[in-house]
Design a protein that fits this description.
Shape of chain C: extended
Chains: A mainly alpha (about 100), B mainly alpha (about 625), C mainly alpha (about 190)
Mean pLDDT of chain A: 89
Number of helices of chain A: 3
Number of domains of chain A: 1
Mean pLDDT of chain C: 85
CATH topology of one domain in chain C: Four Helix Bundle (Hemerythrin (Met), subunit A)
Largest sheet of chain A: none
Helix content of chain C: over 70%
Strand content of chain A: under 5%
CATH topology of chain A: Helix Hairpins
Order of helices and strands of chain A: HHH
Number of strands of chain A: 0
Oligomer: heterotrimer
């Protein structure tokens, strides 16, 4: 099926890179919105992986999974942004480091 | 009448309950007569049961169990509140209730005028109930109930005049020392249950042959520890001399005739076990008995309190009984128990009469020449003296002789110790008789000193004879002390009535030794003792030997209190410290440890999102490492 | 050949946008970089014949989610630049570097070690076969729909519930509290 130079592994490696970059962003950035965007990067990396495998295995289930991931990501973004709005309305200049009330 | 055997302990119990409620209202002397009547009725029932039992054949006599109700039914343990009316227990009941009645009557006169008159009889009846439960119990637990009961009543009665500190202390001492012995009894019960599965005497004795030597020896020796406590043998005898703080009827009933014999009774009850125990078990018992007998006799030689002499004498005579048990002559032990009950009760009551007549003077050095003032007391006391000294045909001779015969069969050394003790017994009793009843009147010298327990009478200058209530029991006991030996004369099988009666329960002691030479030796020892006594104290030919160390009881008491107060106390304090710090400390320490750990651990929750993200990242790396490298690909 | 070219360009878009997201000081710049990444991913979807997903990616992700992000940024006025020079936790950046490199390395190892492992094709295939037995043209949507509405229909229904809940919840969360509510709560 894949008689080309670009094999599945290329896509998988690319997805891994994207995922790692997303991880760095999550750990380093302090602005909550940018943090969220980095999470979106990681989700996209996962989607790429699924689609690559769906193509390799000839199974449409991979694409269905991507479909669901996108739906859930959308829902998650909606709720997450709602929370951020609720918090940042009171404290506009807060960063993630300041939102530490739940410490033990 | 046999199925009414439960009435025997029930009547004194009823007396106790009635006096508990109505005692103070009945007052002096009705309460006393009521209590006496209860015990007297109990005696009549006992006689009835005795006659019924005699009409059965020998085998059937051992099996008469009357069950009242099921007491403990837990798992494999089934214990009924049941009474075993066999020759041994009925013999004990006879003299417990008989002498008990006499002493109750005596006490009505002795305690006249005491402010807590009815309480005294309440305790006496409770004691009678407990003792009868002890003796009639068909299993070890009912016996233990009675055992503890008599210990408690002993405590109540010894410290009856509890305003006097020495009396209160003596009561506590008696109770605590008894408790130490009770541990032995309980261990014996545990072993018996573990080995046989039942606490019933009939089951235990039947299963005796199937027990291992170790188990049987263990049961026997632990029971002996309990007996040492209750019957005041070495090393647990210390409470008995102090127990003389109680009123004289108490000393007579509890500490001469009945409670202290409980230990001997127990050993005889489990005597079938001795067929199976190791040889050294019997030897230990016999040796302890003999040594105690000698030890106590030496102390009695230099006592000056009229009751203390008799107390040590009791310890000594109990030693004789254990010597018999250890030598396998159970019938001899019971025989001596019976005769001892007669003459010792007589001697105690007589001394009580003397104390009463001397306005509560107890020091013999201030008595003397009382035979003119208290003739009946004097006469009965003489009978008791001759009985205990072992002069035939008084009862003491026959029973003591049988014991010495058994001791001779066991070991000549033991026989020799017994013989020397018999000599000393005769000696110190003679000394007592002379100091109290003969010689010059020495009481004029010390008018100011009273007996410590209050002076109810007007201060007469002359001692007087006691009232009829006190004198009548003395006379009855004197007759018994004289004739009591005839129930078991060693001449032939027919005259050995007691042995025959007890035969299905207690195996008789078979012997080939010639009885006559030993009997003559015993008589000689008694007479020599009496002669020396007269020579020292009456004719004043020899110097009296009364070293202080004997007065102190060889310093044994003081050694115990030094040990308990010194190292003993330190040990207890150490244990208390260990409990507070180690045991409680471990528990508290666990709590503190958890708190400390939690305090450190909660610092992980920084509340900061990025720290959590970092932690998640590290976790992911570790997981992936395990899957990819350790397990080799996902 | 074409595929290689497409792949390289798309990969450049993806990685460029990703790095842009994590190094931008301004949140709006980060959002724009994110759009670049999402477009790159969409291109890669097309290259792998997941046409429908590519379309959904552009419409939902780039068109809705990022727009939502921008709305929130503008609404709250949190578009102040973050000072990336300072880092309160000294260990955080080195740790982030180590962790991401480690994850990348491990995943790549897994990929290359397992590349020869056989995989069984389960489930429905990528193609929809027509009446004559040959795959019909542009059957991706049909195939996806066939799988979605037969094997995964329950999950499908549940996601609809999920979306409703998410919307309702967020509306509630993000409401401005009315004065009356505040007084009720306070009394």
């Amino acid at each position: 099926m894949l008689a080309s130079i670009v094999t599945t592994e290329w896509y998988l490696v690319l997805a891994a890179m994207l995922f790692s970059i997303g991880m760095v962003g999550v750990m380093v950035r302090r602005n909550p919105l940018v943090l969220f965007m980095c999470i979106e990067l990681m989700l996209n990396a996962v989607n790429l992986t699924f689609v690559a495998f769906a193509r390799q295995n000839g199974d449409i289930g991979g694409q269905t999974t991507v479909f669901f991931v996108m739906v859930v990501a959308a829902a998650e973004v909606v709720v997450g942004l709602g929370i951020i709005v609720a918090i940042l309305r009171r404290r506009p200049t807060a960063t993630t480091d300041d939102l530490a009330e739940l410490k033990g | 009448m046999l199925d009414l055997v439960w009435l025997i302990p029930a009547l004194p119990l009823l007396g106790f309950l009635v006096l508990l409620v109505l005692g103070r209202k009945l007052g002096d002397p009705v309460a006393g007569y009521f209590a006496t009547a209860m015990v007297g009725l109990s005696f009549l029932v006992t006689v009835g049961v005795f006659l019924d039992l005699m009409s059965l054949d020998a085998e059937a006599r051992t099996e008469q169990v009357t069950t009242l109700f099921s007491w403990v039914a837990v798992g494999g343990l089934h214990i009924d509140l049941a009474f075993l009316a066999d020759p041994l227990s009925i013999t004990m009941c006879l003299f417990v209730t008989g002498i008990g009645t006499l002493i109750h009557l005596y006490a009505v006169g002795y305690m006249h005028g005491d402010s807590r008159f009815s309480k005294f009889f309440l305790y006496l009846n409770l004691f009678a109930f407990s003792m009868l439960m002890l003796v009639l119990g068909s299993n070890m637990l009912v016996t233990f109930l009675g055992w503890e009961g008599v210990g408690t009543c002993s405590y109540f009665l010894i410290s009856f005049w509890h305003e006097r500190e020495s009396a209160a202390t003596a009561g506590k001492k008696a109770f605590v020392t008894n408790r130490v012995g009770d541990w032995g009894f309980m261990m014996a019960m545990f072993f018996a249950f573990w080995a046989v599965g039942s606490l019933d005497y009939l089951h235990i004795n039947e299963a005796a042959e199937s027990l291992s030597v170790t188990t049987a020896t263990a049961i026997a020796l632990f029971a002996f520890v309990g007996a040492c406590g209750k019957s005041a043998q070495l090393p647990l005898y210390v409470w008995l001399p102090d127990a003389m703080e109680g009123p004289t009827p108490v000393s007579a009933l509890i500490h001469a005739a009945t409670m202290v014999t409980a230990g001997v009774y127990l050993m005889c009850r489990i005597s079938p076990l001795f067929e199976v125990t190791a040889d050294y078990a019997g030897t230990i018992i016999a040796v302890v008995g003999a040594v105690t007998a000698l030890f106590a006799a030496t102390i009695a030689v230099s006592q000056n309190d009229i009751k203390k002499v008799l107390a040590y004498s009791t310890v000594s005579q109990l030693g004789f009984m254990f010597l018999a048990v250890g030598s396998g002559a159970y019938v001899a032990a019971i025989f001596h128990m019976v005769t001892h009950a007669f003459f010792k009760a007589l001697l105690f009551l007589g001394s009580g009469s003397v104390i009463h007549g001397m306005h509560h003077e107890q020091d013999m050095r201030r008595m003397g020449a009382l035979r003119k003032f208290m003739p009946i007391t004097f006469g009965t006391f003489i009978v008791g003296w001759l009985a205990i000294a072992g002069v035939p045909p008084f009862s003491g001779f026959w029973s003591k002789d049988e014991i010495l015969l058994a001791a001779y069969d066991k070991s000549i050394v033991l026989w020799a110790v017994g013989l020397v003790t018999a000599l000393l017994t005769a000696f110190y009793m003679t000394r007592q008789v002379i100091m109290v009843f003969y010689g010059e009147a020495r009481w004029h010298d010390a008018h100011e000193e009273h007996g410590a327990h209050g002076d109810y009478h007007a201060h007469d200058t002359e001692p007087h004879e006691s009232p009829w209530m006190m004198v009548l029991p003395l006379v009855v006991l004197a007759v018994l002390s004289f004739a009591g030996g005839f129930i078991n004369m060693p001449f032939s099988h027919e005259t050995e009535k007691l042995a025959t009666w007890l035969e299905p329960v207690l195996h008789p002691h078979e012997t080939d030794t010639a009885k006559l030479p030993l009997a003559l030796a015993a008589i000689a020892a008694g007479l020599v003792g009496i002669a020396i006594g007269f020579a020292v104290y009456y004719f004043k030919k020899l110097k009296p030997v009364e070293p202080k160390i004997l007065l102190d009881g060889w310093g044994y008491d003081r050694a115990i209190s030094n040990f308990m107060g010194g190292p003993g106390r330190k040990a207890f304090d150490a244990i208390a410290w260990a409990d507070a710090h180690l045991v409680d400390g471990a528990v508290n320490g666990t709590g503190k440890l958890v708190q400390a750990t939690a305090g450190k651990a909660r610092r992980v929750q920084t509340g900061n999102l990025r720290n959590y993200a970092a932690a998640v990242g590290v976790g992911v790396v570790l997981l992936l490492t395990w899957f990819v490298i350790v397990r080799g690909i996902l | 050949m074409m595929e290689l070219f497409v792949f390289v360009v798309a990969a450049a878009m993806v990685l460029g946008g990703a790095i842009g997201v994590i190094v931008s000081k301004h949140p709006v710049h980060a959002a724009l970089s994110l759009i670049l990444t999402l477009f790159g991913v969409a291109v890669l979807f097309v290259a792998q014949e997941a046409n429908f997903l590519a379309a959904v990616q552009v419409i939902v992700y780039a068109g809705a989610i990022v727009v939502l992000f921008l709305f929130v940024i503008m609404l709250l006025g949190v578009d102040n630049a973050e000072n990336l020079r300072i880092e309160p936790f000294k260990i955080q950046r080195p740790l982030a570097a180590v962790v991401s490199v480690a994850v990348f390395a491990l995943v790549v190892t897994a990929v290359f070690v397992a590349r020869d492992a056989s995989t069984a094709a389960t489930g429905t295939g990528l193609e929809v076969l027509g009446d004559d037995g040959t795959p019909i043209h542009d059957g991706n949507i049909k195939a996806l729909a066939r799988d979605l509405f037969s094997d995964h229909v329950l999950a499908f229904e549940l996601t609809s519930v999920l979306l409703v809940i998410a919307v309702v919840g967020t509306v509630l969360l993000a409401r401005k509290p009315r004065k009356a509510d505040l007084q009720e709560v306070g009394s």
